Amino acid sequence: MHEGAHRASPMAVRLIGNRKHHRTTVMDETADYYLARHAYVCVLRDRMVLLDTASGKYLALDASSACSLRKHVSGWPQLESANANEAALDLLLKRQLLTRNPSRGKPATPVQVLRANAWLGEVRPAGCPDLSARQVWRFFRATTIAHVSKRAARLDSIVRRLSRRKAAHHPHRSVPLETLDELVRAFDWLLPLAFDKKDNCFLYCLALAEFLAYHRIFPDWIFGVQDQPFRAHCWLQYREHMLTDIPFWVRELTPIMVV
Residue 33 in 3-state DSSP? Predict the structure, then answer.
């Protein structure tokens, strides 16, 4: 295994083993365990990665460890392996990533995400956007909330708060892309007054999500991971349009969680 942590923004992984395998997906109807609600899973070639939002850590399992769990955990994605590392079940139980209580768990099914094919700001006028006093106030309030949340809150509490807010506004209204781009452009113009977004994707996405929420716009906040070398990243996406990145930069990333 391989692991690491960040206070609110998850980072790093720990790894067990390395062999060649073929991937399939199964659903065990007689499963004894469920993935904890604060955990998320995805498949990366010959291993699996879990995101524990309670601790802010990623945990990687090689195929032998993942293989041993398919008979125990509902919806567990399968990696075929000649061997099975039975110690993986005890490990995930000790880390409270699995539960026997179906009301506190969920099937370990990887998320399905609509792949972005365009960047919202691809065609964007240069110069200062039209800024209102209300937009400036909302910008500073959103960035303050994001700063405090990152420093003082656990990732799982941030995820729950944003998920509840988003669910409360279903069905989402359709937003013209021009309107959305004007808001993102205004936020990006003001951003240097609050923080540097370089290597700070978590804070950038959280702050922009808070800002857009004032306008009743709730994009998807997607967390993705890449293997060899391990890389974790997150971005905001509205339908097939990316708000915080261009599709090229996330093409190698596998989504693990969508807020």
Answer: strand
- Do 15 and 88 form a contact (C-beta atoms < 8 A)? no
User: Residues near 144 by Cβ (< 8 Å), separated by ≥ 6?
Assistant: none
Q: 246, 183 in Cβ contact below 8 A?
A: no
| Residue 3 scores a pLDDT above 50 | no
Q: Do the strands 241-242 and 118-119 form a parallel or antiparallel pair, or are they unpaired? A: parallel
Q: What distance in Å separates the CA atoms of residue 59 and residue 61, rounded to the nearest whole number? A: 7
Q: Are 247 and 116 in contact (CB under 8 A)?
A: yes
Whether residue 237 contacts residue 116, with contact meaning beta carbons closer than 8 Å, is answered with yes
Quick check: 215 and 48 in contact, CB under 8 A? Answer: no
What is the structure's pLDDT at 31? 63
Cα–Cα distance for residue pair 220/242, rounded to 1 Å: 10
Q: How far is CA 31 from the centre of its chain?
A: 26
pLDDT per residue as tens digits for the range 26-85 = 434 456 899 999 999 999 988 899 999 999 999 999 888 888 898 899 999 877 776 777
Percentage above 70 pLDDT, the chain: 86
Taking the model in full, what pTM does it have?
0.86
Spatial contact of 7 and 151, defined as CB atoms under 8 Å apart: yes
23 burial (CB, 10 Å; 0-12 / 13-18 / 19+) is middle
Output the six-digit token pair for 226: 């890449």
Please state, in angstroms and rounded to a whole number, the distance separating the CA atoms of residues 49 and 167. 27
